[in-house]
Automatic annotation (TrEMBL):
Gene3D superfamilies linked: Phosphoglycerate mutase-like (3.40.50.1240)
Classification via SUPFAM superfamilies: Phosphoglycerate mutase-like (SSF53254)
Species assigned in the record: Halomonas gemina
Domain of life: Bacteria
Matches recorded under CDD domains: HP_PGM_like
Name of the protein: Histidine phosphatase family protein
Length: 195
């Protein structure tokens, strides 16, 4: 599998806003919640996450989205629902925006992410402990952008996802080696990055 994806040409048919979900109960508990079995129905936004989004919407300083696609996990759905309600938009659940699956580390303390990231730095195709490979995450996330570029033009599209998949997507679109995806500053909960 390739370790890089072609760098973005700098010309997009659409404007993309990449958003990490607000602070969640998984963040609050310091737990890895990456499986659909747990993430779709549990571990939504914490009270801190709801407050983050309230503040963000009062001081929205990005282009107004015309379309919102979101991971169908509860924490990303709840984040997207608040934004959609604010702007009067409908939601589009998109499985390709889901959290990276962390295999047998599911439910473990989030300090164990570091073990996976250390392996990522040497091999973007590793699947140690059943973890979804960085290269696979990059392919599904980049594939969504490519599809949106073919289907739409001139839109502002908000993509609500999770920290690790967004870091990996940004590395892929920058043409950075996927082994270096953790070299970017981590995306904070409820942060928005303009692509």
């Amino acid at each position: 599998m390739s370790n890089t994806f072609p760098a973005a040409s700098g010309h997009w048919h659409n404007r993309y806003l990449l958003m990490r979900h607000g602070h969640s109960l998984a963040n609050q508990q310091g737990r890895i919640i990456s499986s659909p079995e747990r993430g779709l129905t549990g571990y939504g936004l914490s009270s801190r996450g709801r407050e983050q989004l309230d503040g963000l919407l009062v001081d929205w300083r990005w282009a107004t989205p015309g379309r919102i696609l979101h991971s169908d996990f509860r924490r990303t759905t709840e984040t997207a629902e608040r934004i959609a309600h604010h702007f009067g938009l409908r939601l589009e659940a998109e499985e390709r925006l889901r959290e990276r699956h962390f295999g047998s580390l599911e439910g473990e303390a989030d300090e164990r992410y570091a073990e996976v990231w250390a392996r990522d730095a040497h091999d973007p195709a590793h699947r140690h402990a059943g973890v979804e490979a960085v290269a696979e995450v990059a392919a599904r996330m980049s594939g969504l952008i490519a599809e949106l570029e073919q289907r739409h033009a001139g839109e502002t599209i908000l993509l609500v996802s999770h920290g690790d998949p967004l870091q990996i997507l940004l590395a892929a679109l920058e043409g950075r080696e996927l082994t270096r995806h953790r070299e970017r500053p981590p995306l904070a909960p409820a942060s928005v990055t303009v692509l």
